[in-house]
Predict the 3D structure of the following.
Amino acid sequence: MRLGLLLAVLSAGCAAAPQRSQILDAPVVPFDELFAPADTVRFDPSIIIGGIDFLDLNQEGDLLVTDRIGRGIHLFSSFGEHIRTYSAQECLPDDGDRAPHISRFLGKNHVATMLSGLAAAVFTADGHCVDATRRLPDPSRGFCTSGDSMIFLITPLPSAEPLSYNRVAVYSPELHFLRDISVEWPKFPALNVTFSGFWGRNIDCFGDGPYFTYLGSMDAMPARFDAASAQQRPEFYSERPRDMPLRMSIEAKRAEWNRYITTDAVFALTSHTRMVVYRNLDERWQPEEQADTWVRLGISVGSNVGRFLPRSTIATVWPIAAGYGYAYSRGDHERLPNGDVGNPMILRHRFVPPQDADD
């Protein structure tokens, strides 16, 4: 999407109030009705990955791995062959110890990353630094990319008195601020300044603009107030009865957070299909094969443009990335021929559009 079109799409919501009254139920269906196993990606063992903290992919299927523990940003082919490593020290030579948290492809010619301390850097595709900042001007827990634009969901800090409004901020590849658009306020503001969902996954970019999530929201919401997409209500969803008090101990806040369902992530499964991930479902939704685990994940899948009615399912894998019709999750660590434990593998599942989908 060109920058001018993107700004026009976002600015459409400046003065309008949200008009999304239509709610569509998303019944629970078996996981394999929506996702079919495709293949497994084994990463080049010559590159040691401490952890896959964030994963992004491009149209060619290349995988961009952010390793916070190993402080690396690694580019692999769709088959796991190592192509390149991006170094934050290239952009911030005096601050090379910052850990990368989120890295995404930025158009076809750049890679963008957020680092600890709200630092950010942009590289050319071949690894040269374009620009960097030691601190973004506003707090953000995630960004997505559309064309050559970086789109941040700006969220207030707990110390803000009063809490500042939420907004979407648009930046250029040179990290120049372009504009921001105020977005819908969360129903549970204290909850959303206290915790976040999957790191970096509270916003994703689609063909019709960015969508974002709040922890207690029923569905992801478009950043355009004039968007016509209906909201989906998963069968397992029940609304939190109250907000979280700001003045609680960390332990008490964590217990309160885990007591009710949280909306933890939104993924662009295709350019017009959103996949929303929920955690802490009621225990009656716990699959028998996961009876010994405490995490209960639910997934809802909906069309931004009404191609099919929404569905929900109970996850049998933990999604960490999605795009171009595939969902990605972590697998076990690969066992190498010499008996050593290698890098974690990636499981790829193909999205199966519901039978009522338009061709």
